[in-house]
Amino acid sequence: MDDIRFLPCGDCAVTVAFPQEIREDTNRKIRFLAERLKTARIRGLRETVPTFCSLTVYYDPLALSAGKLEKHVRGLLSRYREDAAGAGRVFRIPVCYEGEYAPDMADVCALTGLTKQQVIALHTSADYLIYMLGFLPGFPYLGGMDQRLAAPRLSSPRTVIPAGAVGIGGKQTGIYPLASPGGWRLIGRTPVKVYDPDRAEPILYRAGDSIRFYPISQEEFAEIAAKGGQPEVTGK
To answer: Cβ neighbours of residue 131 under 8 Å, at least 6 residues apart?
Structure first.
């Protein structure tokens, strides 16, 4: 654990910083630590926020000191095993890669040298690990995209991207959970509401879960949307 640093964030948070490299094994340790801290019943601990390479822990400084928190963290990490974080759920997310739902498909094909059918086949061939959520409520930062699909962001971002848009930005892919500005190249859209403030749990998934895309037609998009846009879920 010599490669872990504890960085103070004001007087009520500490960032547990791991090596600054996006790796699945590092992210597994971060998820393990976040899960164990939530169940450890540590007096004064308020919230944990996982990212690619770090975990920020918020605490009440009147009930818990930064030094004691560090001892708790080191003790939990000393009991880490490769399989300790467990497997997350897998969400099968339908995506329409056709027409108005894929305004940048032709550009992605031109930039990558792939045909539309190849782009769709590659994009739907992987289980994408959700490393973290950020930028917008429910925006998943995914790992595992085939690097043949890598394409640069737009030189001029759109002012509005529709909810459910699926895009590629550099070496990553993701889903826009609600209408917002954005600069990723849009290759499809899902009718699934990955963020719904009226649900008991507004965000559909969490870090450690995985997403598997599968293609649907425009007619199927309309049918799924009319039924409320529910994904298939496997795992715990």
So the answer is: 22, 27, 51, 52, 141, 142, 143, 207
Distance CA 186, CA 189 (A): 8
| Six token digits for residue 74 | 């080191």
In the chain, the percentage of residues whose pLDDT exceeds 90 is 77
154 Cβ neighbours under 8 A, 6+ residues apart: 104, 183, 184, 185
Angle made by CA atoms 100, 226, 106, in degrees to the nearest 5: 15
Instruction: Please write the tens of the pLDDT for every residue from 196-231.
Output: 998 899 999 988 899 999 999 999 999 999 988 778
> Quick one: pLDDT band at residue 25, thresholds 50, 70, 90?
confident
Q: What are phi and psi of 166, to 5 degrees?
A: -110, 125
Rounded Cα gap, residues 170 and 80, in angstroms: 33
Query: Tens digits of per-residue pLDDT, 139-193?
Result: 999 999 999 999 999 999 999 999 999 999 999 999 999 999 999 999 999 999 9
Among residues 216, 185, 232, 210, the alpha carbon closest in space to that of 120 is found at 216
d(CA 143, CA 139): 13
Q: What are the phi and psi torsion angles at 35 (to 5°)?
A: -65, -45
Residue 77 exposed, middle or buried by CB count within 10 Å (0-12, 13-18, 19+): middle
Q: What is the CA radius of gyration of the chain?
A: 19
Contact, 187 vs 168, CB < 8 A? yes
Structure tokens at 124: 């739907």
Coil, strand or helix at 173: strand
Residues forming a β-bridge with 49: 56
